[in-house]
Each structure stands twice: as structure tokens, then as C-alpha cells.
Specification:
The protein has 212 residues and is mainly β. The chain has no helices and 18 strands. The chain is globular.
């Protein structure tokens, strides 16, 4: 395990991280007192600030590596925005009722949180993250019909097959490259760290893998 950003109070990566196709890292950091997006090499070097004010979280890189999608409050409410990889040409993408992030699927389209095309019938579902194979997406949910009634679950891309994973609700999660595991950040005594992954079989059974 290698630490990528300096130990500080900047909450690096809290609010989502994204990899660009050429292997660089996009992540929120708060040296200015609020979350802005930064770009760095995979080893954390050559960091560059991309956004300036308005809070920016939940970054997602386009498949061609030219565009970053992210959630921002710079227009007064949280909506989806896009910008070039160097931080230029920022433009608002959605004007709904509080979109926080987008997840790109393999064909390059995006699935935003708060989209008017409803997938499934959960009481509340936010922050979708699509698996690399394009078959599933993870989401944070709350719905009294399920046990637990809130947390992280997975759903097929057509809105069927919802499964709760018994993971505490978090925005900070990413799929493994083979789409068989979901990695997430767990908060313990105000510390953020990578805790574990969950794997599941076709029948929906799963077991926890502790990372040492």
C-alpha cells in the first residue's frame, strides 16, 4: 500500500476519485477551505488544481480522457458540470433538483444522479457508479422494504435486480477492473481509510475481504 497524497487536513479524495484513461488521478481536496478538484500523476506527483470555488465533488473522466464530469454548487444548487481535463471551459450540464455526480458507461453515455429516467423503484437512490463491464451499477439507497433499510446496493443497468450489500452508505466507492468486487472507504473515528471489498456470486451470495 502506498500513500499518494501528503498527510494533511485536506480530506484528499473524500467526495470521490476518478482515474483518467492515461492513468492520472482526479480527486477533491480542501486546502482552500472547500472542496475543489485536483489532477495528479498516479503516484500523487505533479498535482494541479482544476476548479476554483463553488465546491466540486464526484469527478468522472470521459472514456477519451478529454472531459471531466463533476457535481458542483457554483450555480447556487448542486448540478452536474463538465470541463476540459485542464480545468478550462466549465459548463453546466443538468438543471434538475440536486444532481451530485455522474457515472459513465462503456459506450460513453452518462448516468447522472437525479436523472429524469427512473431506474428501479427505490424510495431514494443516489450516486450511481457503473461497473466496468457495463452490467451493474452501485448506488447509495434508503428504502424501508429492504434490510438494511439504507446503505450501498447494486442494480442492473436496466433498473432490475437490486441487491443490498450490507455496506454503510458512502459516496467513496469504486469497482474492481473485473467488475467482481466493490471497494469502499469506511470512516472510523473521523479517519477515512480503504476498508474492504465485497464479492458476490451469480446467486447473489457474497463475502467480505479484509484488506491488510
Amino acid at each position: 500500500m502506498t500513500q499518494l497524497t501528503p498527510t494533511s487536513s485536506n480530506d484528499d479524495g473524500v467526495g470521490g476519485i476518478a482515474w483518467t484513461p492515461d492513468g492520472r488521478l482526479v480527486y477533491p481536496s480542501t486546502p482552500s477551505g472547500q472542496a475543489d478538484l485536483w489532477l495528479s500523476n498516479a503516484d500523487g506527483t505533479n498535482s494541479k488544481r482544476l476548479t476554483f470555488g463553488g465546491v466540486a465533488v464526484m469527478p468522472e473522466a470521459s472514456p477519451d480522457g478529454r472531459t471531466i464530469y463533476f457535481g458542483s454548487e457554483r450555480s447556487g444548487a448542486c448540478h452536474l458540470w463538465r470541463m476540459d481535463l485542464d480545468g478550462s471551459n466549465a459548463a453546466q450540464v443538468t438543471r434538475g433538483s440536486g444532481e451530485r455526480g455522474a457515472s459513465l458507461i462503456p459506450d460513453g453515455k452518462w448516468l447522472p444522479s437525479g436523472t429524469p429516467v427512473r431506474l428501479g423503484d427505490l424510495e431514494n437512490a443516489v450516486v450511481p457508479i457503473v461497473s466496468p463491464d457495463g452490467q451493474w451499477f452501485s448506488l447509495s439507497y434508503s428504502d424501508k422494504r429492504f434490510e438494511p433499510p439504507e446503505g450501498v446496493g447494486i442494480m442492473r443497468l436496466d433498473g432490475t435486480g437490486f441487491k443490498p450489500l450490507h455496506i454503510p452508505s458512502t459516496w467513496d466507492r469504486r469497482w474492481s477492473a473485473n467488475s467482481k468486487a466493490l471497494y469502499f472507504v469506511k470512516s472510523t473515528q473521523r479517519l477515512q481509510h480503504l476498508e474492504a471489498s465485497y464479492r458476490w456470486r451469480s446467486a447473489g451470495a457474497h463475502h467480505q475481504l479484509h484488506l491488510r
